Amino acid sequence: MYDTERSPPARRAKMRSMHSIAKASPQMRALTGALQNCGGEAPLARKLGVSVDVLSGWLRGHDLLPADMYLRARDLAAVRKR
Question: pTM for the full model?
Answer without folding.
Answer: 0.68
